[in-house]
Design brief:
With about 400 residues, this protein is an all-beta fold. The protein is about 0% helix and about 50% strand.
Length: about 400
């Protein structure tokens, strides 16, 4: 540990650093102490170096800070890109202890690292096609409203999300002839924000359909489109098994992700053929598919797959999200549950998995990170202590002691 001041003292502080969400903890984390005096404010972590700092280097998750002065401190940890000992929410992970710490102390503190979600904000709105705008944002925009200042200039609009990008697509009709349009964006109860969007003559979006590749015994068949789905005519769609017998199905539109989902009873070792005849798909602009589209969807034998059963034991804080993840932490399957019970995850591909639970404190169905300035800790995540090794035709049973 080194001090950024002039005086060296003899007290110590012990603790450990963990990752709030991930299975493994990062290395080279800076553990920092800020002295709480008359000049201290929480915003100091953005602007000034700490009084004391220690780096965990490449192997340690526990730490002992030595040569400390008696006093009151806030303890903060950063995983930085540029090592300037200032918190950059866009790049750095952060962790902190909620309460002030009085040194000397025998208590050992745990710091849970997380990537802080950016503040909700609309950054810009730009034209991308004749009747389509990009809305670039940060943070959570679940309750976003976007519209022209003069709402009468459009008949209808639709918002879809670009996958893996902080961008929404705003579709509207009819095409505007003006050279600019004043758009209003509002998040929750925040003050509306105005954007003057320049418009120029651009090509219109055309309808193309793409088969999604996530189909399995666990996941339904689905298609996506280059323009928003407006209507699916099931009368113009045939779904058959490999022996040509018809399969009953229902269609659900996921408008935000712009997917059409086909729900039907899926059988093992089966091949399904879907035929969409001309006119089966109508998009937001009234365009229809003019060609016959043929898609095949296949399932594996159940004895080529494995099942995991998870028993929750001793839980008293619900709801809880149970997740099965790959080793890269991508989520394969999840359930949100409200009681101690046994929960099954069927038809998983053989491989190695992590089991984890998220204590969904605010009951919004997802993991939420913390916020330093609001003194909010990240939701608690607990991993099963062993890696799940699943083989074909295996049933694995696990008890999660909460």
């Amino acid at each position: 540990v080194f001090s950024t001041g002039e005086v060296i003292d003899s007290l110590t502080l012990k603790g450990k650093v963990t990752d709030a969400l991930n299975y493994e903890t990062d290395d080279f984390i800076s553990v920092m102490l800020y002295e709480v005096d008359e000049e201290y404010t929480d915003s100091i972590i953005y602007k000034e170096a700490p009084r004391y700092v220690l780096n965990t280097l490449d192997s340690l998750t526990t730490f002992t800070m030595e040569n400390l002065k008696e006093g009151t401190y806030r303890i903060v940890a950063l995983k930085e890109e540029n090592s300037d000992l200032r918190f950059d929410p866009k790049r750095d992970k952060i962790g902190f202890v909620s309460e002030e710490i009085v040194v000397p102390t025998d208590q050992q503190y745990e710091i849970r690292m997380y990537q802080q979600e950016a503040d909700s904000e609309i950054k810009k709105i730009t034209q991308q096609a004749a009747s389509r705008l990009y809305v670039t944002y940060t943070g959570n925009v679940d309750n976003l409203q976007v519209k022209p200042l003069d709402a009468s200039i459009i008949e209808n609009s639709r918002i879809t999300k670009l996958e893996k990008k902080d961008t929404l697509q705003y579709w509207y009709r009819p095409t505007l002839k003006e050279d600019s349009v004043l758009m209003i964006a509002q998040l929750d109860d925040k003050e509306p924000k105005e954007f003057n969007v320049r418009l120029k003559e651009m090509e219109k979006d055309s309808l193309t359909i793409k088969k999604e590749t996530t189909f399995s015994l666990r996941n339904p068949a689905s298609i996506s489109a280059s323009t928003p789905f407006e209507f699916i005519d099931n009368e113009l769609i045939d779904l058959t098994r490999k022996d040509s017998t018809a399969v009953a199905f229902e269609t659900v539109l996921d408008s935000l992700n712009n997917k059409a989902i086909f729900n039907f009873e899926r059988e093992e070792d089966q091949l399904y053929k879907m035929t969409l005849f001309p006119g089966a798909i109508t998009d937001f602009y009234g365009s229809k598919n003019t060609d016959t589209l043929n898609y095949s969807y296949g399932t594996k034998k159940t004895n080529a797959l494995g099942n995991i059963s998870v028993k929750l034991n001793g839980g008293n804080s619900f709801p809880i999200i149970i997740q099965v993840t790959k080793k890269d932490l991508s989520v394969i399957a999840e359930q949100s549950v409200k009681a101690n019970n046994t929960y099954d995850f069927f038809y998983l591909d053989p491989g190695e998995y992590y089991l984890r639970i998220i204590y969904d404190t605010n009951a919004n169905g997802k993991y939420d990170a913390g916020n330093f300035l609001e003194n909010i800790q990240p939701e608690v995540v607990q991993y099963y202590p062993e890696i799940v090794k699943l083989q074909a035709n295996w049933d694995r049973n696990y008890t999660f002691n909460l």
